[in-house]
Amino acid sequence: MKHIYFPAIVLFSLLWTSSLYAQQLDTYDTIGDNLLFRKEITGSAIIHTNGWGLEFRKGTNRSIFTKLMWEANLLEMKDAKEIKSINQFFTNTKSYFYGKLNAVYILRAGIGRQHMLNRKPYSGGVEVRLFYSGGLAAGFTKPVYLNILKPDQAAYRYIIVTERYNPDEHFPDNIYGRAGFFKGFDQLSVYPGAYAKVGLNIDFGTINQRPKTFEVGAVLDGFPKAIPTMAFRSPHNLFFTLYLSFGIGKRYD
Fold first, then answer.
1. Is 5 helix (H, G, I), strand (E, B) or coil?
2. 3-state secondary structure string, 68-109?
3. What is the DSSP letter of 210?
4. CATH no. for residue 111?
């Protein structure tokens, strides 16, 4: 749990700070180039407490202070108990995660709203928006394949074969390392679900038409059918993550 403390502190600090900004709202246009564009698209890179991801978002202004947005995310979702291992009894081995059954990826598609908490002054600064969103999620599992050492009795040596990880047969002394990244993509399993997200979006760009955003938030992904990740842990129905993201975009009519 220690690795989620820093994003949590940042999230709650910004929420508290934004409440102070909200008290300064007025009805005057203080955007630097004095133009209010109705549409916005943004692409972002995400780092979250269980991995990384990418996001595409499109928004439409409903008023000066409110924006309707559509979003799509693709993320890697690691298990908190993953520990990198290596077979030290052989040379040229590759690292792997002992006990990992599946690599998990989540695809999200949803809709939400942004509410402006403060407007960027003429002198520069930041614009802070509270946002919330939700929608459909799909979890994808790719089975883990490993290179396994097998004794060749005839030649009195070991041979290396690629097999799907089996906790009853594969152990630290006979695992040579991970197999290729693309091994197992032909055996994907799909887990339908849903997600909910909340946080703060901060625009620090100096050009209104070219927003640069920093975002901090929390997401809960839920799946009716539990997703297996580790051999020695129960499958997960819920994935709670905190995240930070950086995005660049375009505003237009």
1. helix
2. EEEEEEEEEECCCCCCEECCCCCCCCCCEECCECEEEEEEEE
3. S
4. 2.40.160.20
Note the pTM of the prediction, 2 decimals.
0.83
Which pLDDT belongs to residue 123? 58
Query: Does a structural domain hold residue 25?
Result: yes
Burial (CB count <10 Å: 0-12, 13-18, 19+), residue 18: middle
Question: Which residues, in sequence order, are CB contacts of 147 under 8 Å at separation 6+?
Answer: 94, 160, 161, 162, 175, 176, 177, 178, 179
CA atoms lying within 13 Å on the CB side of residue 171: 3
Q: Quick check: helix, strand or coil at residue 231? A: coil
Q: Which residues pair with 84 in a beta bridge?
A: 97
Looking at the domain assignment, is residue 152 inside a domain? no
For CA atoms 232, 236, 242, 244, give the dihedral sign.
Answer: positive
pLDDT for 28 equals 40
Domain residues for the domain of 49 are 2-80+102-140+189-252
171-194 exposure pattern, b = at least 16 Cβ within 10 A, e = fewer: eeebbbbbbeeebbeeeeeebebb
Question: Is 178 inside any structural domain?
Answer: no
Q: Which of 73, 157, 153 is nearest to 112 (CA)?
A: 73
The domain total for the chain is 1
Q: Which candidate, 183, 140, 132, places its Cα nearest to that of 161?
A: 183
Percent of the chain with pLDDT over 90: 72
Residues in Cβ contact with 15 at an 8 Å cutoff, skipping those fewer than 6 apart:
200
